[in-house]
Predict the structure.
Amino acid sequence: MILPIVAYGDSVLKKKAEPITQDYPELEALITNMFETMYGAYGVGLAAPQIGLPIRLFVVDTEPFADDEDLSKEEQEAMKDFKQVFINPEILEETGDEWAFNEGCLSIPDVREDVFRKPTITIKFQDEKFNAHTMTYNGLIARVIQHEYDHIEGVLFTDRLSAFKKRIIKGRLNNISKGNINVDYRMKFPLLKKKR
C-alpha cells in the first residue's frame, strides 16, 4: 500500500526517532509499504518519519543510480544490487574528505541543493529479521544512507545548508508546508487538514 509522504514543516520530521523491537506491530507489512511508497515516488530511500512514524527504520534501494553515466561500471553494478532495510541503525564512523552532491528529498519536493558529506561510513544496524550487521559503505550508497539516517535523527538536508542558501529557499519551503506545490505522489501537508 502506498502511504502519504509527510511534507516539510511537520514536527515528526524534526524528532529524534525511537528504537523498535522485533515485536513492533505489523513490521513486515510496514517495510513492504515503505518500499512501495518509495518506488511510487521514484525515491532511492525512505525513512519512517517521512510516513509519520518516529521510529528508527529506513529503507534504501539505489538501483535508479545504476544508469548514472558519471559512475564507473563497478559503481553502477554496486548501485544495481543494493537494497537494504536498516532498523535501529547507528553510524559508528564517517571518514574521508567531504564532497558535494546535489540532494533532494521526497518530503521536500522540487528543492535540490549541494550537500557536503564524508564519502565513507561504518554503520551498525539490524535487518528486517533483526540480524545484526556492521558494514562499511562508500560513495553514493554511503550518501543515501547518511541522508536517511539524518531523518531518524530529526535532521533534514536543508538543515545542512548555509544560512544564505536557507534564506534563498525559505519561500519554497513555506509553500511546501502549506501544500502550494504540485507533486505526482501522495503527500500529507502539515498546514492542511485534508490529505492529498
Summary: Residues 26 and 32 are 10 Å apart (CA to CA). The longest helix spans residues 163-178. The two ends are 15 Å apart (CA to CA). The chain has a mean pLDDT of 94.
